[in-house]
Amino acid sequence: MIKKVVKIEHNTQADDTVLLNWFDMQKPNLSAVTQEDISFIMKVKSTHLHENDVLVCDDGYRIKVEKCEDEMYIFEFKNHIDFARVAYEIGNRHQPICIEDYKITVLDDISLADIILQLKDKDGVFVTKVQGYFKPNGKANHVH
To answer: What is the CATH number of domain 70-132?
Structure first.
């Protein structure tokens, strides 16, 4: 049986836990499976989930949201032209991004595969695949 989430609470006890990646935490409509193998769906009017939110199901079952690590790519650049070009390309694909000094971090996504392939052997650009907690700049993944 699939449970239905009817509201989100904070600072309450939970019966179970669900691990969600960054993309899943952004979804207003979500289906997932908890650590105790309970399936649930969520169609709550909320912008996105936060770590430690407690999802309350229609039968009172409570599920705590925990963040899991994401697969990401880190691009590091030796010059500002390559840095700007890649930031521009990723922005045109409307992908969430974290920009730092000569460094860009993005989630692993099929829409970026051509950029990643093109940069892997480019002089002055270093591409590394890592796992970690994604923290984009600004209001990433906005809607037009």
So the answer is: 3.30.70.790
